[in-house]
Automatic annotation (TrEMBL):
Belongs to the trans-sulfuration enzymes family. One of its GO terms (biological process) is transsulfuration. One of its GO terms (molecular function) is carbon-sulfur lyase activity. The modification N6-(pyridoxal phosphate)lysine is found at residue 199. InterPro entries: Cys/Met-Metab_PyrdxlP-dep_enz (IPR000277), Cys_met_metab_PP (IPR054542), PyrdxlP-dep_Trfase (IPR015424), PyrdxlP-dep_Trfase_major (IPR015421), PyrdxlP-dep_Trfase_small (IPR015422). It comes from Flagellimonas lutaonensis. Its cofactor is pyridoxal 5'-phosphate. GO terms for cellular component: cytoplasm. This is Cystathionine beta-lyase.
């Protein structure tokens, strides 16, 4: 397909536009209508059929970005995830999921699947062998996240895709952390790529949306459950997302280079015990990350030296904001122990390597030196406080 030969920034700016035939405007007009003529037309358009002009244009852009045949956009990342899973699973089926899942996905699996008679297993680790061990004759889906949250482990996409194919199962990935700029799982044989578009695709912390990208055949199957679950999004959000994606390539590349610089700075800092970033040669999965990622992403995490309180440290930051979400142009941090992984037992957290002092850092597009200066001043403050008290 010709569009796939274009570079990321060209796809971001040009592919999947609604042509303004009436006024020849530079950007897609927004069709803020939920009602379309149904007589004498080939396509019956309706927002919950996922086929309005703005939806179809955005889907073309996202499909091109993920080297996929087709795409669907949803009202949230969770709508995309739950709809895609329910399209491929039915009573009696089994699914294998990577242990280090996004909290919402984990919650969906453990609270909903049993109601439908679907069984599930979580892997112990993230190596291909860990997935193979959990396979059962009725396993229909293998679901991965790479890089993972919050320790940025890397799963071998090609190995998992092959394992799924051999077993007659569908392979799915949550590609949110990498974004399509840094990682295209379909090139490695993965069947269904899912995004929380709330994150890097939106990029400005102002939209909530989700997307799947896959073959036309899989898209049609997901569409069947999508029209039933009804997780479509407003036309205005679709339009905003198209606008946001135009700058995704330059945003994410700026975040890649900032994150690399920040990871290197933190690694050398004597107040930091550990840094987790796939771009660091010291990262356990660095070689695999190099093989399957074009950039190492804007997410990293680090552990402060024992005795330095992570929450106190974050309170002293002036530029970097504490935030539950991630992937905006602004830098944010959170403590997984206090937020995303608070419901998990201390024992389970320890098993996954999530310590009390761990901080997840979503690196924005600010000047690198300003981010470093902010961390420096917060460390100085917390150290003087720690000595005083
Ligand atoms: C945020 C997020 C989701 C869920 O997306 P929503 O848009 O909040 O529904 C899923 N996976 C990952 C990795 C996320 O970061």
């Amino acid at each position: 397909m010709n569009r796939q030969k274009k570079g990321v920034n060209t796809i971001c700016t040009h592919v999947g536009e609604v042509e303004d035939k009436q006024f020849k405007g530079a950007i897609s007009p927004l069709y803020m209508t939920s009602s379309y003529a149904f007589e004498d037309v080939d396509v019956k358009r309706y927002p919950r059929y996922f086929n309005t002009p703005n939806q179809e244009a955005l889907c073309e852009k996202i499909a091109a970005l993920e080297h996929a045949e087709a795409s669907l956009v949803f009202g949230s990342g969770m709508a995309a995830i739950s709809t895609a899973l329910m399209a491929f699973l039915q009573a009696g089926d089994h699914i294998v999921l990577q242990q280090t899942l996004y909290g919402g996905t984990y919650n969906f699996v453990v609270t909903q699947l049993e109601k439908y008679g679907i069984t599930y297993s979580f892997t112990e680790g993230w190596k291909a062998g860990d997935f193979e061990k959990e396979l059962r004759p009725n396993t229909k889906v293998i679901y991965i996240e790479t890089p993972s949250n919050p320790l940025l482990t890397i799963t071998d996409m090609k190995a998992v895709a092959q394992l799924a194919k051999k077993h007659g199962a569908v392979s799915m990935i949550d590609n949110t952390f990498a974004s399509p700029v840094n990682q295209n799982p379909i090139d490695f044989g993965i069947d269904v790529v899912i995004h929380s578009a709330t994150k890097y695709m939106g990029g400005h912390s102002d939209v909530c949306a989700g997307a799947v990208a896959c073959s036309k055949e899989h898209r049609d199957l997901i569409w069947q459950s999508a029209i039933c679950f009804g997780g479509s999004l407003s036309e205005y959000t679709v339009w905003l997302l198209e606008r946001s994606i135009k700058t995704m390539g330059i945003r994410v590349r700026a975040q890649n280079s900032n994150a690399m610089a920040l990871a290197a700075y933190l690694y050398k800092n004597e107040d930091v015990d550990a840094v987790y970033y796939p771009g660091l040669p010291t990262h356990a999965d660095h070689d695999l990350a190099k093989q399957q990622m074009k950039g190492f992403g804007g997410m990293l995490s680090f552990e402060l030296k024992a005795g330095l309180d992570a929450s106190e440290f974050m309170k002293f930051l002036k530029l970097i904001k504490p935030s539950m979400s991630l992937a905006g142009v602004e830098s944010t941090m959170l403590s997984p122990v206090k937020t995303s992984h608070a419901l998990m037992s201390a024992e389970d957290r320890a098993k996954q390597g999530i310590g009390d002092g761990l901080i997840r850092f979503s690196v924005g597009i600010e000047e690198t030196d300003d981010l470093i200066a902010d961390i420096e001043q917060a460390l100085e403050k917390i150290k003087s406080k720690t000595v005083l008290t």
